């Protein structure tokens, strides 16, 4: 089978789950075609080893040689921009008809493919995977049904990474039969389980994330400040790995809270360096929150990796996180934006290292059983094969004229 992937930018360090899914299909004998807006040059990604060599060799940009027109198209009036973009999409996406099935990561890319299905240009069935902001923000703004009208009508299957997002799509009008949950996962065999007790030593707390509002790092700092005030005898350290627009304000907050001597901002690191830091940590702290614009997590891969490595995960009752972490059994959860409750969870964990060993082992087993990328990729391969078999062999009729659909959101390549 040949599978066409539609993504935004490729490859992205923050979207290793996309790379891992593609690699899992290559291992199973699938041929991959990647269509993206932009091919990224990121030195933190090893482009000279497999599977990246194979995947990059199969990667093409939307609009091909005409990609340089994207800046000009973006400046056109909305209606004209939509029409020009759609014509260019039609011209340069026909190569996807060599594929047996199309996989679009993130809703906006799925809707773009659905538009081509609407104009009967694209033949293969379209499977879209929704991850977070692509479903949470339009749902927050009551725009989900209009923004994804094409997918709801023309998409073969809409997959969400958690149950909450599936409920959002169903509420927007998607059918039960065309909507399902498919978790992202990790490869546990690539992460050795190494429980390290902090009994008699300095506890090390780590966060790995992009520094944006929904990650809740502000509340991690406030909780640790509350813990510092109530339990000054606990000599902890906090390492924050990642970068983003909130870094400066978070560094300022750490200083204002009197935590500068305990908190280290380490910036963005290559994946292998992140794993090395995880091996020297005891707790993984990610108190995710719903952002002001409605943005939400799916189920963070960073939590899965930490749990697989033997760290104690401390997070929040947010989005799909409770599907991964059961409070007191496979980790610890506090309400969103509740620094005092989060501090209480941290204090209990610091005080009970022996009890936490059982929690860490249960967390590893949870990841192995339910968030194992090898198992999930095998299941995904079956989903693709079934979709391809059920698809009609050809579309009827030539493309018809292009008129802007009502409620559309014109985009650019």
Automatic annotation (TrEMBL):
<keyword id="KW-0328">Glycosyltransferase</keyword>
<feature type="domain" description="Glycosyl transferase family 1">
    <location>
        <begin position="199"/>
        <end position="365"/>
    </location>
</feature>
<dbReference type="GO" id="GO:0016757">
    <property type="term" value="F:glycosyltransferase activity"/>
</dbReference>
<feature type="region of interest" description="Disordered">
    <location>
        <begin position="391"/>
        <end position="413"/>
    </location>
</feature>
<keyword id="KW-0808">Transferase</keyword>
<dbReference type="InterPro" id="IPR050194">
    <property type="entry name" value="Glycosyltransferase_grp1"/>
</dbReference>
<dbReference type="Pfam" id="PF00534">
    <property type="entry name" value="Glycos_transf_1"/>
</dbReference>
<feature type="domain" description="Glycosyltransferase subfamily 4-like N-terminal">
    <location>
        <begin position="17"/>
        <end position="183"/>
    </location>
</feature>
<protein>
    <submittedName>
        <fullName>Glycosyltransferase</fullName>
        <ecNumber>2.4.-.-</ecNumber>
    </submittedName>
</protein>
<dbReference type="InterPro" id="IPR001296">
    <property type="entry name" value="Glyco_trans_1"/>
</dbReference>
<dbReference type="Pfam" id="PF13579">
    <property type="entry name" value="Glyco_trans_4_4"/>
</dbReference>
<dbReference type="InterPro" id="IPR028098">
    <property type="entry name" value="Glyco_trans_4-like_N"/>
</dbReference>
